[in-house]
Amino acid sequence: MKIDASFVTSATSASDFPRDGLSEIALVGRSNVGKSSLINALARQRVARTSAAPGKTRLANVYRLARGNAPPFHLVDLPGFGYARRTGQAQARTEPAFEEIVRAVFARTPAALLLVDARHPGLESDRAAWEWVSSTAAGAAVVATKIDKLARGERIRAMRQLESVFDASVLPFSAVTGEGLDELWNLIDSLVNRRNRNNQPSRNSQQPPKPTARSPEPPPTGPTKPLRRRPKK
Ligand code: GDP
């Protein structure tokens, strides 16, 4: 199927976002988790810059994608969180510039994908991110990146652990082998359709989410169920 993909803009504040009303899917994840690689895999070309040096981006990069005859949508690549260069430790980033751009993106009530590294299931910063993402976005799902790096046994263990931590089905994905790419497109289609159906003005403009590890901000209208939540055992 034909894919059209292009870079639209780098946004630093609410006024920088496109005003064409296309559906938006926010990509959330720690620095170096593989967001740019995932975007390039979807686009089938290098629209996003990948890097081995984490924590560089302070902007939300917006890409326009369309597959086949489906309506186009915007992928909004949020700055990676949770990387402190000095210590190499995972930490919640609380810098004003980061909070401002997250607030601006989520005030637009996008759907969202939380990307987590398949090799590190259950990091505190990922759990905290899932709390605010799943309760604030108009539909959300978890994608486990770099799945090619795990051997069969490790992979089964990691997927089990991830699904238990997030209490949601988790999509295994590899930008290197292309595993999960079709399923990711299907997931995106369902998120875009779902968002189009529920297309309402922002519910969150009064109280945006705060991507802090300790105190995720509860949304004013209560949680939206994450997509494809697994039944409780
Ligand atoms: P970002 O900071 O989240 O945008 O991460 P990048 O896409 O720049 O990826 C960070 C590093 O992980 C790069 O060295 C990528 O080549 C590598 N990487 C990303 N996705 C995959 C994957 O699916 N498999 C493997 N083996 N490496 C990956």
Tally the helices: what do you get?
5
Sheet with the most strands? 7 strands, mixed
Radius of gyration: 16 Å
Number of E-type strands:
7
* N-to-C CA distance: 39 Å
H/E series: EEHEEHEHEHEH
- The backbone outline, from C-alpha atoms, is globular
Broad structural category: alpha/beta
What order do the helices and strands come in, and which of them pair?
Blueprint: E1 3-11, E2 23-29, H1 35-43, E3 60-67, E4 73-77, H2 96-106, E5 111-117, H3 124-136, E6 140-145, H4 152-166, E7 170-172, H5 181-197
Parallel strand pairs: 2-4, 2-5, 5-6, 6-7
Antiparallel strand pairs: 1-3, 3-4
How would you sum up this structure, described in words?
The structure is a single chain. This protein has five helices and seven strands; from the N terminus they run ββαββαβαβαβα. The radius of gyration is 16 Å and the shape is globular. The chain is an alpha/beta fold and 233 residues long. It has a seven-stranded mixed β-sheet with strand order 1-3-4-2-5-6-7, sandwiched between helices. The chain has helices spanning 35-43, 96-106, 124-136, 152-166, 181-197, and strands spanning 3-11, 23-29, 60-67, 73-77, 111-117, 140-145, 170-172. Residues 83-93 and 201-227 have low confidence and may be disordered. Bound molecules: guanosine-5'-diphosphate. Guanosine-5'-diphosphate is lined by residues 29, 31-37, 50-52, 54, 80, 145-146, 148-149, 174-176.
